[in-house]
Each structure stands twice: as structure tokens, then as C-alpha cells.
Design goal:
Layout lengths: L1 H35 L6 H22 L8 H5 L2 H35 L13 H27 L7 H4 L4
Helix pairs in contact: 1-2, 1-5, 2-5, 4-5
Function: Part of the tripartite ATP-independent periplasmic (TRAP) transport system.
Family: Belongs to the TRAP transporter small permease family.
GO molecular function: transmembrane transporter activity
Length: 169
């Protein structure tokens, strides 16, 4: 199960990286279009979709690598049981919020598909298509938080080294 979850997080990160490369290409095409006097309809909207997809799909991988910003002032002052209790509370609350975020993201995709929502820009893209990356990203993010919570309950959660914490705070 551990290898499957890690592969899921890595796969989402690779997909996010692919979307970032596609975003770069879209921006370069837009710049070239302005310089060479041609227009690709909807390129700005697609760049926005690609940026959102990259951001949402990278959430879980970033969490699992300890790169999300955490305010550790209080937790670093605690030791033993109180520290573990606070970690468990924070992870449980985050897992619940991430699960709600995933639920409502998936619901938005379903509603956009059911109501045939279209982009209001000149690309006229069905909105459920770009929203799908958000839904997938939030579901994987919720799984990552649940994974972190289970690891903390089992006492298997990786603790960053003391110098390692400083790089993301």
C-alpha cells in the first residue's frame, strides 16, 4: 500500500510538472503571437487552466515532502504526549478540511458537467474539463493528509531534522 500511495503522489507531481511545461509553452506562444501578429484564440484561458492544474496536482507531493509552510512555534515548545496530541489534532482537522475540499471540488465538476457550464471567454471550453484537474488534485491531497494522520497514529511519521525545518518556515 505504501508503494501505491507514493506512486500516486509522484504521479500527480509528474502530471503537475507536465502541466507547468505546457503552461510555459502556452505563455511563449502568447508572447510570440503578440510579436509576430497572430492570435491563438483562448490561449490566455488555457494558460490559466494549466496553472491551476499544476498547482492542485502538486499539493499532495508537496505535503508529503514537508514543503508546505507550517507554523511550528507552539509544537516545537511541546514534548511527549501534548506534542503528539497537537499533531494528531492538526492532522485530523487538516484531513477533514481536505476531504471537504475534495468533496466540493468533485461536486463542482459533476455540476458543471450536468449543467453544461461553458467558459465565458472566447475558448468556450466546457468547464468540467479544467475543473477535473482540481478535483483530482484535491482528492489526492485529502488522501495524503489521511496518510499522514495514519502514519502519526502508528508512530511512523517522518520527523524533519532540526536544520531541515528551517528551510520552509
Amino acid at each position: 500500500m505504501r508503494r501505491l500511495l507514493d506512486a500516486l503522489y509522484d504521479g500527480a507531481a509528474w502530471l503537475a510538472a507536465l502541466f507547468m511545461v505546457a503552461l510555459l509553452i502556452a505563455v511563449l506562444l502568447s508572447i510570440l503571437g503578440r510579436q509576430l501578429h497572430f492570435n491563438i484564440a483562448g490561449i490566455d484561458a488555457y494558460a490559466g487552466y494549466l496553472m491551476a492544474a499544476a498547482g492542485f496536482l502538486a499539493l499532495a507531493h508537496t505535503l508529503k515532502r514537508g514543503e508546505h509552510i507550517r507554523v511550528t512555534l507552539l509544537i516545537n515548545a511541546l514534548r511527549g504526549g501534548p506534542r503528539k496530541a497537537l499533531e494528531l489534532w492538526a492532522l485530523a482537522a487538516a484531513a477533514m478540511l481536505a476531504a471537504l475540499f475534495a468533496f466540493y471540488s468533485c461536486r463542482l465538476v459533476w455540476q458543471s458537467h450536468a449543467f453544461h457550464d461553458m467558459s465565458t471567454s472566447n475558448d468556450a471550453t466546457p468547464l468540467w474539463i479544467p475543473q477535473l484537474a482540481m478535483a483530482v488534485g484535491t482528492v489526492v491531497f485529502a488522501l495524503a493528509f489521511i496518510d499522514e494522520l495514519v502514519l502519526e497514529l502508528r508512530g511512523q511519521r517522518a520527523r524533519p531534522a532540526s536544520g531541515e525545518v528551517l528551510r520552509n518556515e
